[in-house]
Specification:
The complex is a heterodimer of chains A (about 300) and B (about 325).
Chain A: H1 14-45, H2 52-70, H3 74-95, H4 105-127, E1 142-145, E2 148-151, H5 152-174, H6 176-186, H7 188-193, H8 198-220, H9 231-245, H10 250-270, H11 276-290
Antiparallel strand pairs in A: 1-2
Helix pairs in contact in A: 1-5, 1-8, 1-9, 1-10, 2-3, 2-4, 2-8, 2-9, 3-8, 5-6, 5-8, 6-8, 9-10, 9-11, 10-11
Chain B: H1 2-21, H2 24-49, H3 58-75, H4 79-103, H5 108-127, E1 138-139, H6 154-177, H7 179-189, H8 191-196, H9 201-227, E2 229-230, H10 232-235, H11 238-251, H12 258-274, H13 281-302, H14 308-314
Antiparallel strand pairs in B: 1-2
Helix pairs in contact in B: 1-6, 2-6, 2-9, 2-11, 2-12, 3-4, 3-9, 4-9, 6-7, 7-9, 11-12, 12-13
């Protein structure tokens, strides 16, 4: 540690800034994955899923308890968590979402808010409101690269998140089901006319979005605390990122996620942490006013 | 209207007689229900009638709460007057927000997100503003000072809350029959068509937000005087917003009685569940929220117009 890191604000050393940028990159990658799940669901089904952040929370709890009760590592738990949450997504879609697809946006928002409340209160009822965390063998491990320390758990979370984003892009771009999803997102009637099974595409998209949220939840468990209320933070970030990237855009959400990761890390370094959210939302408002199609997106029509 | 005037007057008279028989505990529950009903009706002006689904009304609620409280503490202005000042400030903020947002043609889901963002920014600013005591919040002292909107017993608060709901119902009914109200409905149903038939939709939407904002602020002032404690965490968060939306959407958005029906149902349900003979009160409170949430989903799926449509279908 150099002396400069002790002189807060007045002089922040380059190593501290690099450290912040690195942690911003790591969290940004995870945010990107969460936001991509959110934006995929919106892009295809036109539904804004307020409960998306709470799906992250639910997966965090599942991984937490698998570790606590069966000593299953969060990364190993993915074998259980991913298919399980694909199923949760499918179930939510069939039981609830499917019935409101045709309803106005206000109904979408209210029903998914209702789902948010269901998840939050179920978790609170069974697990209580306390923050809980786990300590794996690698929770505090890190290695030095030049002046910055690279925390292993966060690095792994970022790598897995980015791999998942890549896999999702390949799936959407190359496979026939992926192409059908994009077709349905672009033009539902047109896709249906050329033989795309739109209801199935909606079901798969919603399930994939849920799975993306679950993956993000599981990989941050080794270094994050979980409570029934952590979902709010994730959904707010997902909103902002998805809007920054242009709602429905996967590539845009990746760029937006990294941007928000950096903004968050730097604003907690240079400005007060409690203003961080306000800054993020001020950016959101500015983008919505001036470029509603997103910073990285293109204007439609 | 005249056909509904008589039952309306009977209902108000009955409500006014309640404190003669009800104890302090029941009155508290009724005040909570009336406050929720008022909030729902105020949000309903913008979201229900004009279709402007704001998620940032906590901003106006918080402005009302802080304006009347700060004016009282710093200038000695009675909150009876301070609540009107708060409403004026919230109205101006609402109009400015609306002018900006509608100027850039933000609508639908984007409008919901911008307003949600505005409330979040307000909370961040309030948390960092030392003059209003930041995240610590402000505590008011309990005392008997009717001229300054402080009462020791529940009855006066009950009558104030009841008067606010009655006033809000009258405003809603007048609005429904006014030209402005017709413009609101036209905007909600089809903005392009409204514009084509000569409605100044920009003006109508801006008035809807400004009016709804000012009306919401009164509830914030009432909250401060009734609970005697405000903080960014209690007034600027999503909690008040949720109260407004639950009652309105479950009861029936865009109607005068729907939001009251929904709010009273939710408050009553919460109170009933709390009084069940369970030992673990924490779990009962959480359980009642769970019941709300499930009810909300079921009602929105099967009765998209809200509970109020049940009565209409029969008649």
């Amino acid at each position: 540690m150099t002396v400069s890191s002790y002189n807060a604000r007045a002089m922040i050393g380059l190593d501290v800034v690099l450290q912040a940028l690195l942690s911003g990159f790591f969290m940004g990658s995870v945010y990107a994955l969460i936001a991509i799940g959110f934006t995929l669901v919106f892009g295809v089904t036109d539904i804004v899923n307020f409960a998306h952040g709470h799906l992250v929370m639910a997966a965090m709890f599942v991984s937490y308890f698998l570790f606590k009760s069966a000593h299953i590592d969060p990364y190993l738990s993915l074998v259980i968590v991913l298919p399980a949450f694909f199923g949760v997504g499918a179930l939510l879609y069939v039981v609830v979402i499917q019935r409101i697809v045709e309803a106005p946006h206000s109904a979408h928002m209210m029903v998914t808010l209702g789902l948010l409340l269901v998840f939050e209160n179920l978790a609170n009822l069974f697990f209580g409101g306390d923050l809980r965390g786990i300590t794996t063998t690698y929770t505090t491990s890190s290695f030095m690269v030049g002046p910055v320390s690279v925390p292993l758990a966060r690095l792994a979370a970022a790598v897995v998140s980015l791999l998942a984003v890549g896999a999702l892009s390949v799936f959407l771009g190359r496979t026939s089901l992926g192409k059908a999803i994009r077709a349905a997102a672009n033009n539902r009637e047109g896709a249906a006319l050329v033989g795309v099974n739109v209801p199935r595409v909606y079901l798969v998209s919603f399930s994939l979005g849920t799975m993306a949220a679950a993956l993000a939840g599981a990989v941050i468990v080794p270094f994050s605390l979980v409570s029934p209320f952590v979902g709010h933070e994730f959904i707010l970030k997902a909103f902002v990122i998805a809007v920054l990237g242009g709602l429905g855009s996967v590539g845009g959400a990746l760029a937006g996620g990294l941007l928000i990761g950096f903004v968050e890390a730097l604003s907690s370094l240079y400005i007060s942490a409690s203003l961080g959210n306000a800054i993020v939302f001020a950016i959101l408002i500015a983008v919505l006013l001036y470029r509603p199609w997103g910073i990285f997106g293109q204007a439609k029509v | 209207m005249s056909g509904r005037l008589a039952p309306g007057l009977v209902a108000v008279a009955a409500a006014a007689a309640v404190p003669l028989v009800a104890g302090q505990h029941i009155l508290t529950a009724l005040i909570v229900a009336l406050h929720a009903s008022y909030l729902a009706l105020a949000w309903n002006v913008a979201a229900g009638y004009a279709g402007q689904f704001s998620l940032g009304h906590s901003l106006f609620y918080g402005i009302g709460a802080y304006a009347s409280t700060m004016l009282y503490l710093k200038l000695g202005l009675t909150p009876w007057a301070g609540m009107f000042a708060g409403a004026a400030i919230a109205g101006v903020v609402g109009v400015l927000l609306a002018l900006g947002v509608y100027r850039y043609n933000v609508r639908g889901i984007f409008f919901a997100l911008v307003t949600l963002g505005a409330a979040e920014v307000a909370k961040g600013l309030a948390d960092n503003w030392d003059w209003i005591k930041g995240p610590v919040g402000i505590l008011l002292t309990m005392k008997a000072a009717p001229g300054e909107f402080f009462f020791l017993r529940r009855e006066p608060y009950y009558y104030v809350a009841l008067a606010m709901v009655v006033a809000m119902l009258v405003i809603s009914l007048v609005l429904e029959r006014s030209r402005l109200g017709q413009h609101f409905l036209a905007v909600r149903e089809d903005e392009a068509a409204a514009e084509a038939s000569g409605v100044d939709t920009y003006r109508a939407k801006t008035i809807a937000i400004g009016l709804s904002a000012a009306l919401t602020a009164f509830a914030g002032s009432f909250y401060a005087q009734f609970y005697l404690y405000i903080s960014p965490e209690t007034v600027f968060t999503f909690e008040p917003q949720l109260t407004m939306m639950l009652g309105t959407m479950v009861g029936g958005a865009g109607t005068a009685l729907g939001p009251v029906l929904g709010s009273v149902l939710f408050s009553g349900l919460g109170e009933a569940l709390r009084n069940l003979p369970f030992e673990n009160t924490r779990q009962v409170v959480i359980g009642s929220k769970l019941v709300y949430a499930i009810l909300l989903i079921v009602i929105l799926i099967y009765l998209p117009g809200g509970l109020i449509t049940l009565g209409r279908r029969r008649s």
